[in-house]
Design goal:
559 residues; 2 domains; Rossmann fold; 54% helix; membrane; 17 helices; eight-stranded mixed sheet; alpha/beta
Length: 559
């Protein structure tokens, strides 16, 4: 065997049986070219199967095209910024931040319907949700178009970051907005700002890595873009421009909210429910006595609109002409000057909040309850829980418990939720302020109050529990309502004529107690009966009778 090896070596030395390998073309180049190409010389195991090369393929294992000058083609998949560990790490972190933002988005979405412990804010919660949506949008653009950096994309994202910084300043510097948004809102806008800056930094690092790898592997930075890359840059830029428009609208809405926060109110905000939120309570007039007994105070409960809009004006007129000596009113959670309550929130919870606020203010009654529309549900529950203090009830076109399904329909709930989601954009509010001369009063408790996120959230809360929790509460209240309490019902003639079921339920409410003073159907009055002269006249006339009836019942009770 040794002789065979020797023969073999001898043949090789003489060149009789083995042919020498022809010189590689790289040997004909100069030394610099030879050294640069040597690193790209393919493996001699050319008969082994190969996968298609990609940016992770080792360069020594890649086949080199003939007549190559030692550099890769710019379109070669190996020419990628992913070769740098910093670029790969930033992509992984971007995906991680996207996952975190999505989990926070889910939590905020749930909190609109059910407030988790510690996550309730006194505001609507829609702004927090909007900022998180914006964060997810920025991170998605950065993730999808990660490998296609563009200067235009960095500029548009920088504009977004500047606007978000302005939003942070507004939220933190305006006490009322800071109180409404709470730590959840502040954290959401700060996170949105930080992620916008991160997207700018990521795009810049990828651009640097792309240039570095192109110079290293192709000999120059590639200035051309493929059609696919141009489409990606265009789509990413268009999306970020849309984000800019969204943030501009949100910033404008915050500015309007800051302006509205300066509106002075009559009365006080009282913390209730373990200091989770505050409700607005105000009283007009002084406590008076007649024949040694305290005169009743009228307690107003609004319907579907904030009470200050026009219902309170009627009560003030009654006070000025001497029909009543004193009245108090409040804003249900989410209305006018009151904060939003945690979700879910029922009519009975509103009645409890009112009771607590009045107690903290030192208000003890006796009360004559005047309510309208859906507010009559809250007023009836309050009456059943304060029977000794309630000496009269007047309801104006009240909602019946059997009709609560009308405001609890899923379609209405979805519409309210959708309006709430887009409420931070404030398109209608901004247009009203800029072009229609809408005032702070209009937006806080007037004709445009329905456009605010707080109001929409309150309506959504009523929708979610109207036909179950609230209905059960008011049905129980009816069973324990004092039977001798004087009762006045004033109904809308327009509503009665167009809805026979509404008429039947209005009639049923006249049997709420056994002491019906009057039931009036005001012929030409709409649902808000007090908005017509005839309606105001009838209401004031019946209020005088109710005050006399309440005094009579109180005298008989004392005897």
């Amino acid at each position: 065997m040794s002789s065979m090896w020797k023969g073999g070596n001898q043949d090789n030395q003489n060149g009789d049986q083995l042919t020498a390998e022809p010189p590689h073309p790289i040997a004909q180049d100069d030394g610099a070219s030879r050294s640069s190409r040597r690193s790209y010389e393919p493996s001699r195991r050319s008969h082994e199967p190969r996968d298609e090369p990609h940016e992770r393929t080792r360069l020594l294992d890649r086949p080199r095209p003939p007549n190559s000058d030692g550099y890769l083609d710019p379109d070669d998949p190996a020419v990628s910024p992913y070769n740098l560990w910093t670029v790969r790490a930033m992509r992984y972190l971007t995906i991680l931040f996207l996952i975190i933002s999505f989990l926070w988005w889910v939590l905020l979405l749930v909190s609109i319907f059910v407030s988790p412990p510690g996550l309730h804010t006194r505001g609507s919660g829609f702004f927090d949700f909007a900022y998180t949506c914006l964060t997810i949008g920025n991170l998605l653009v950065a993730t999808i178009f990660f490998i296609t950096p563009a200067k235009g994309l960095r500029i548009t994202t920088a504009i977004i970051a500047v606007l978000l910084a302005i939003d942070m300043i507004i939220i933190v510097s305006v006490p009322r907005i800071r109180l409404e948004e709470g730590w959840v809102g502040i954290a959401s806008v700060v996170w949105a700002f930080v992620m916008a800056v991160w997207c700018i930094l990521t795009d810049r690092v990828v651009a640097y890595g792309k240039k570095e790898e192109e110079e290293r592997l192709t000999g120059r930075a590639e200035t051309r873009r493929t059609l696919k890359e141009w489409v990606a840059v265009l789509v990413a830029t268009v999306l970020t421009v849309v984000f800019i428009i969204i943030v501009i609208l949100m910033t404008g809405t915050l500015g309007v909210r800051a302006r509205d926060a300066s509106l002075k109110m009559y009365g006080d905000r009282i913390l209730v429910d373990g200091d989770k939120y505050a409700v607005h309570v105000a009283c007009v007039g002084n406590v008076s006595e007649t024949n040694g007994s305290k005169d009743p105070t009228v307690l107003l409960e609004a319907g579907e609109q904030p009470l200050e809009y026009d219902f309170e004006h009627w009560a003030y007129a009654a006070y000025k002409n001497g029909t009543i000596s004193r009245y108090c009113y409040w804003d249900r959670p989410g209305y006018a000057f009151s904060d939003n309550a945690p979700s879910p929130h029922s009519a009975g919870m509103s009645a409890d909040a009112l009771s607590e606020a009045l107690a903290k203010q030192g208000e003890q009654g006796p009360w004559i309850l005047i309510s309208a529309g859906t507010g009559s549900i809250v007023s009836r529950i309050f009456s059943s829980r304060h029977m000794k203090q309630v000496t009269g009830i007047m309801m104006v076109d009240p909602m019946h418990e059997d009709l609560l399904h009308r405001i609890a329909s899923p379609s209405r709930g979805f519409i309210l939720w959708a309006w709430g989601i887009i409420s931070p954009l404030g398109t209608v509010r901004l247009a009203g302020a800029l072009f229609k001369g809408r005032t702070r009063e209009d937006r806080v408790y007037g004709r445009n109050a329905y456009q605010s996120g707080k109001y929409i959230k309150a309506q959504l809360q009523e929708n979610l529990v109207a036909d179950n929790l609230s209905k059960n509460e008011v049905s129980s209240a009816r069973n324990i309502q004092s039977s001798d309490t004087p009762l006045v019902i004033v109904s809308s003639g327009i509503e009665v004529r167009k809805d026979s079921e509404w008429e039947r339920k209005q009639k049923d409410l006249t049997t709420l107690t056994e002491n019906l003073v009057s039931w009036d159907v005001v012929n030409k009055a709409p649902h808000m009966v007090w908005s017509t002269l005839e309606g105001r006249t009838v209401m004031e006339k019946r209020l005088k009778q109710l005050v006399k009836a309440a005094a009579k019942v109180k005298t008989e009770a004392e005897e």
